[in-house]
Each structure stands twice: as C-alpha cells, then as structure tokens.
Amino acid sequence: MSVHLRSLRILAGKRALVSQVSLHILPGQITVLVGASGSGKTLTARSLLGLVHGIEPGIVAADLEIQDGEVIHRPYAAVDRERAFVPVRGPLIAWLPQNPRAALDPLQAVGAQIRDCLKLSGQNTGLDVAPEPWLERVSLAKSVGRLYPHQLSGGMAQRVGIALALARGSRFLIVDEPTTGLDPSLRAGILEELKRARDSGVGLLLITHDLRLVRQLGDHLLVMDRGCIVEDRPAQDLSAMQSAQAQALWQATLRLEARQ
Amino acid sequence: MSALRPWAGVALLLLPVLIWVLSLAANYDVIADVDVSRASLAPSVDHWLGCDHLGRDVLWRLITASESFVGPSLFACVVALVIGVPAGALSGWLGGLPASLTRFGLTTVASLPRFVLVLLVCAAFGNSVQLIALAAGVAYAPTLAEAIYARIQSFRHRGFVLAGQAHGLRSGRILWLHLLWVNHRRLILRHCVQLFAYFLLLETTLSYIGGLDGAGSFGVAQPDPSWGNMIAFEWREPQANIWATLAPGLATALVLLGATWTGRSLIEEQA
Amino acid sequence: MTSRSGLLRALLRHLGSFVLTLVGCALLLQLLLALAPGDAADLVANDPVLRTALVEQWHLDQPVWRRTLESLAGLLTGQFGESLTFRPGTPVSELLLRGATSSGPLLFGALLLSVGLGSGMAWLKWERGARLLSIVSVAPVFLIAATTTTALNQVAFAGLQAGWWAAPAWFALPVNNHPLKTALAIAALAIGSGAFSEIHQASHESLRAIRSSEYVDAAVARGAPLSDLVLRNFLLPLSAITARRAAFFVGGLVVIEKVLHVQGAGAMLWQACRLRDWPLVIGLSLLAACVVAGTRLLADMSRLALDPRLRGQA
Questions:
Q1: C38 by DSSP, 3-state: which?
Q2: Is C142 close to B204, i.e. CB distance below 8 A?
Q3: Domain residue ranges in chain B
Q4: What pLDDT, in 10s, does the model give residues B36-79?
Q5: Cα separation of A229 and C204, whole Å?
Q6: What interface predicted TM-score (ipTM) does this complex get?
C-alpha cells in the first residue's frame, strides 16, 4: 500500500507555483518534505487530497496513484474528481493542517468530534465510540474531551488533531508544520506521537522548514525550492546532499545549532 | 457585466445629484405650471414625459422633485457622520464606562425602528423635509457607530497600532488618521451611500402614503413635487398618462439600484 | 472562571440590557413628546375653556419624569391609559392588543419568509434566482405592493370582461380583505426595500467564509459530512442577521399596512401620530421597541447556547 504523486503542476496565471513534483509515501515510513516558506510545500500536500482551492488557478496536471491492496485509486484521472476523492479523503489519507486549532470545529467539544470520527471510520459499529482511549493514546487527559477548541493550547490542539486522524483510521497522514510555535518540550512530545503513529504502520508525510526534524525521525527526505523538488534521498548522511539549495539549507541549520 | 456594475452604480447615484444641480439652476416654477387643457397628455416633443391629470409637465416635476431629497439626504449624512463617527470611534478606542454609556444610548435609539422614530419626530415637531432628514440622520447614527465601534475595537490592539504608540505617535493621530481615514474611509463612505438611499426610500414612502392620506399627513405634500407623491397623485386616475406614475417609480428604483451596486463595490475584504 | 458562572453572567447581562433599553426608550419617547410644540388639544379645541378642561382630563400638564414612570408601569401592567383622539376613551391596551393580533402574523411571516428565502438561496447556491430577486428587492415596499395590487386587479378585470371567471373574492384589492392580501403584504415586506438582497448577501458572505475555513477543509479531508458542521456554524451569523432585520420589518409594517389598508398596529401608529394621540403613540412605540429588543435578546440567547466561546468569558 502506498501513495505516489507524479508530475504535479500548479499554475497561478502563467506562473508555476509547483512544477514537476513527484513523491511517494510508504506505510510505516516518514517522508519529510523540507523547504523555505513559499516553496509550495503546503500546496503539494493539499493536492494529495484534492483540496487546492482558494487560489485562482488549479492543478494543471497531476498523476496521483494510491494503491490500496489490489485496488488502485487515481482520482485526478477521473471525470468527477470530487467523487473520485471520496474513498481517499479519510479512509486512506488524513490531513493535519498548519494551524491545528483552526482545523477543529469551534462549536463542538473535542470528545464529540472524536466520536464523530469514530462513527465515520465505521470501525466501531458496536457500542464503543468512547473518545477517551484515543485521547489517552496521544497522552491527553480524559477531561480534555469536554473542552472546546478555543480552550486548547497549541500543543493540545495538535495532539487532538493526531487523535482525530488516528480515530479516523487513515492509512496515511499528512502533517503540515506540526512543531511551529511550540516550545522544545512540547515539540519533543509531538514528535514522539508521530513516531508512535509510524510504528503502528501509518505512512506519514511531514512538512516542515526545519531540517533538524529529518535527523530525529525521517526515513526519506525531499527538499523543495521554488516549486521544484531539488533533493530526493534517504534521510541518512545529510552532509552528502547534492543540490546547492539543499546544502545551503543544511549549512544554515548547522550554524544555527552551533550557535545554540 | 459585473465589472461594470460599480461604475453603473456610481453613475446612477450621481444622476439625481446632477438633476438637483440642474433643477436649482433652472429654478422652474412647477407649482404655477397648471394647465387643465393639457390634462393627462401623452409624451410629446413639447412635454417629453407628458402631463399629469392637472396638466402639469411630468418631466419638470420629476426634476424639481430632486430638491425634496438630494439636499436633505446630504444633510442627513452629515448628521449621521457628526454623531456616529465620534461616538463609534471614541467608544471603540477608549472602552470602559463612557463607551458602555454611549453604546447603551445608541442601542436605545436603535431599538425604535427608524421609520417609527421619523414618524414620531414628524408628529411632535411638524412635518418638514429638513426635520425628516435630521431624524433620519439621528436614527441612522447607531448603525454607523456600531459598525465603526466593532472595527476600531478589533483594530485597537493590532500590531501597527501598538507599534505606532511605541514610536510615540499621538493617540489622536493614530485614531483619526491611521484607523479611521486610512483603514475605514470606505466603510464610512458605504454607510453614507446607504443612508442616501435610505433617505430617498423614506422620503418617497412617506410622501406616497401622505399623498394617499390627504392633507395634514406626513412627507412632501402636493403641490410640492416628490417622486412619492407624484405616484400617489396619479395612481387612481382612470385616464392617467401612464408615464406620470411610471417615471417617478422607475427613477426611485434606479437610484436605489445604483446605491446598492455602489455599496456592494465598497465592501472591502475583511482584514 | 468556570463556564457555568460565565454563562449565568452573560445571561444576566443580556437580560439587564433588555430591561435598561426599554427604560431608555420610555424616557426618550416622553422627552421627545414633552418637547413637542403642540399637543392633541390643539387639534380639537379653539376654545380656551374647553382646552383647559381637555388638558386636565388628558393629563397633558404632567412632568416628564412622572410620565416616564407611568409608561414604564404601563410596560409591566399593560395599561397605558386611554386613547385621546384616535378612539377617544378606549383603553390603549385594548387597541394595542387589537393591533398586535393583526400585525403579528404579518411581522413574523415576513421575518420568516425573508430569512428563509435569503439564507436558503445562499445555502443552496441558487445564484441566478437570488440575483433576480435581489433586483426586485431594490424596489421600495410601497411600490411593490401598489404595482402588484394594480396588476392583480387588472388581470381580474380583464378576465371578468372576457368572461373567463366571475369576479374573484379579492377583486378590488387592497380594499377587500382576503388571505391573498395578507400573503401579498408578507411577500412585499419580506422582499421589498432591500430586505431580501441584504439578508441574502449577508448569508452568502458568512457561508462563503465558513465554507472556505480550515475546519471545513479538515472535515472534507476526513471525508466527514459537511451539512451539520456548516449549518451549526452558520446559525451564529444567521441569528445576528435576523435580529438586525427585526427593527426594519417593524418599521415596514407601518408602510405595508397603510398601503394595503390593513387595520394593524402599524396603520394605527400612523393615524395616532397624525392625531397626536400621545398615549397611543407611546404604547405602540414601546410595543415596537419590545419586539425589536426582544428579538435581539432572543438572538443573543441562542448565540449563547450555540457558541462555547461566548459562554467561557463574560
């Protein structure tokens, strides 16, 4: 089971926001997509779910192939894309947007949102739609289930987002900048949750501008620059990166670490 | 089509103002212009829109009627601005007890429907267009103040305001120049356009009902022309020249449409 | 602060502001009428002796504070004294009741119809129909009502002459009373003078903001059904929109009742204003303020029930 995105092109007018991007997500692996702000990371991630809207243009070309055992989904090849994405959104791929709190329904308590996810996933057709075990799985107290999104801190909201994805039972998880704005201890906690998700067999696409994450939990590394993939390699031995942009990013990270 | 709408809106809105200027310049005496021999005359070269059942030229009445709402509605805008802008801006900026009191007063006024308030003022102080305009301006002020209050309050603690204060800019300068003029002049202008349209609506409605009601009622009364009382005056005439009712009705609807389009184009993206 | 005491505080604050608003309205009305240069006696009497008698009989010489207290007491007891010139001697409360029973259906019918139409068309994205109705909506209420009645009468008359039908019961609108007239009044009020276009525009904009929000995207990405989520979040702006329009419709009642000859509170207010029947004017205006402030209170309450963010802080 795997996700393959090939030759993605997104245009805004005549300007290419993303061009010729290809990537793979494999189960039980973390693929890290690194790039500076505005390099097209988030657009790439959204295109995996058919959620590129809000910007005027659209996807000009994309070949998304999701293997689910024997079945192969190719939603961009379908005539009715919205319908073709139905089996993809949720059961196969889940998405944690950049701002985890804004991604939660502001009017519903956390527990109820997890319960909705459980009902959706259908894995609990019986009685067991209790949200508590899922909260505990992401190291949150049971009482968090009674809180509303505006009462959560950034780290808690991020954990709730992960709990929702786990409860939905998605095979793949796209995580957009999960550690932005968190202090080091919260950061470590979130990374721990992501690792645990990976170890349970979920395939992750982690989007970040921080190369240090790659060393901590990456299996595969992609570096994006101005809409193109400039580096595509295993996440070991980062000093041997080929492209100049990726090298520059790496050197900057090293300097930053040395100063700290 | 939709790209032209703002311009069409502004054009339709400026039309009555132009007509008003024309009417003031021409100073045509529509009241003396009665000639029964041309009663209910159909449109002709001499009388482009024909005559009403008293033989009065419809076009001249249509033009002169602009005097009964353009000037007063501009006056109403001034009244609403003078009350609404400081009330909204200061209560949004200062907060605390004065703001609560101001807003309470405005809510109280807003709890009486505008039309009812105008009617009350007319009943109490007599029926004149200037008074209606004053009442309309006062009645509209809470809407303007509330809109400004909400925006100033949300801008109050934005980075650029705090940065300005940190740089030592005077609060007054930040509030009046940066917040109101730079950031919210479109909002204020939109409310002025809406009030202009509202006053036209109010005046034609009052004059129409007053026209049906007969003497001693409200609004602009015959023989003074108003688009509202022109419609009422001709409505029940069996042999009427149809343009005598159609023209003021259309004129009202077109100016209101222009105001709607202009107002829409002034809605900015919420920051 | 716990959520419960926050909720209680917010409830009390809204109730308090409702009561205070009515007190303020009573004071405002009495001040306005006290400053008025004329009174009801001017319309009746040229004779100074009769005038003095009337002034005494009608309590026209009382100070403002006393009248304000009396009208506030009237709000509690429903007694606003007797009508002076509209129906001399009839208790105002009786007239208010009579007016409210015939105007209430019009008001709430129009409110329901316009909010239903405006938000429904925005919800279903009926762009074309909405654009058409928005154009109609620009026309003033009185113009829509007058045009429609004339057109209906013309059609009925033409059919009568051609021998297609006997004179229908509603023939000669708006003089005859008929359910059709009520329906016409509700429709004209709900659409005319920009009512429909403003409600539709506001609904359309809040729906667009909700539909392009992160949480809706996230729900789409989870494959969750959207209608519940969007509806829940749309009810908040919708209740505010509804409350804002209530005052507008109360004012519109006066217009539609005068134009269509409905014997309701609105037409009564117009007539009472003409006749300077101050007790009746006060009673009717306070009734209007009650409806407006009451709708606002209702909207605030429902927002409080829906939105946890409002319950937390107070």
A1: coil
A2: yes
A3: 5-69+204-266, 72-198
A4: 888 877 888 888 888 888 888 889 899 999 999 999 999 999 99
A5: 40
A6: 0.89
* Closest Cβ opposite residue A94 in set C213, C222, C229: C222
For residue A200, give the CATH number of its domain: 3.40.50.300
Question: DSSP character for B178?
Answer: I
CATH of C2-313 given 1.10.10, 1.10.1060, 1.10.3720, 2.20.130: 1.10.3720
Where do we find the tokens 């005494």?
C56
C305 and chain A: CB distance < 8 Å anywhere?
A: no
Whether C62 contacts C30, CB under 8 Å: no
d(CA B265, CA B259): 10
- Spatial separation of the C-alpha atoms in residues B124 and C222, rounded to whole Å: 63
For β-strands A30-35 and A220-225, DSSP reports them as parallel
Return per-residue pLDDT of chain A as tens, 260 residues. 788 888 888 877 777 888 888 888 888 889 999 888 778 888 888 888 888 765 555 666 777 877 777 778 787 777 777 787 888 888 888 888 888 888 899 999 999 998 888 888 776 555 567 888 888 888 888 888 889 999 998 888 988 988 888 888 888 889 988 887 778 888 888 888 888 888 888 889 999 888 888 887 888 888 888 888 888 888 777 777 778 888 888 888 888 888 87
> Model's pTM, two decimal places?
0.87
Query: In sequence order, what are the beta bridge partners of A173?
Result: A94, A204
Angle between helices C227-259 and B114-125 (to 10 degrees): 30
Residue C301 Cα, gap to closest chain B Cα (Å):
17
User: Rg of chain A over CA atoms, in angstroms?
Assistant: 18
Cβ count near C200 (within 10 Å):
26
Nearest CA-CA partner of C28 in B130, B149, B111, B137: B111
DSSP A238: G
Q: Which is nearest to A49 in space by CA: A101, A108, A3?
A: A3
Whether A157 contacts A138, CB under 8 Å: no
A30-35/A203-208 β-pairing: parallel
Domain total in chain A? 1
Residue A215 is part of which domain span? Answer: 2-259
Closest-CA residue to B230 (of B87, B89, B60, B88): B60
Q: Would you call C125 exposed, middle or buried from its count of C-beta atoms within 10 A (0-12, 13-18, 19+)?
A: exposed
A2-12 and A58-68 beta bridge pairing: antiparallel
The set of chains that have 3 or more CB pairs under 8 A with C is A, B
> What's the CA gap between B80 and B75, in Å, rounded?
9
Greatest CA separation for chain A: 56
pLDDT in tens, C172-212: 888 888 888 999 999 999 998 889 999 999 999 999 999 88
Binary contact (A104, C223; C-beta < 8 A):
no
Q: Look-up: residue for tokens 């609404």?
A: B84
Q: Judged by CB atoms within 8 Å, which residues 115-134 of C form the interface with B?
A: 134
User: Checking DSSP bridges between strand A172-176 and strand A15-25, what pairing results, if any?
Assistant: unpaired
- Whole-number Å distance between alpha carbons of B146 and A202: 51
Distance CA C102, CA C93 (A): 15
The 3-state DSSP class for residue B39 equals coil
Which residues in chain C have their CB less than 8 angstroms from residue A117's CB?
222, 224
Distance CA B87, CA B144 (A): 9
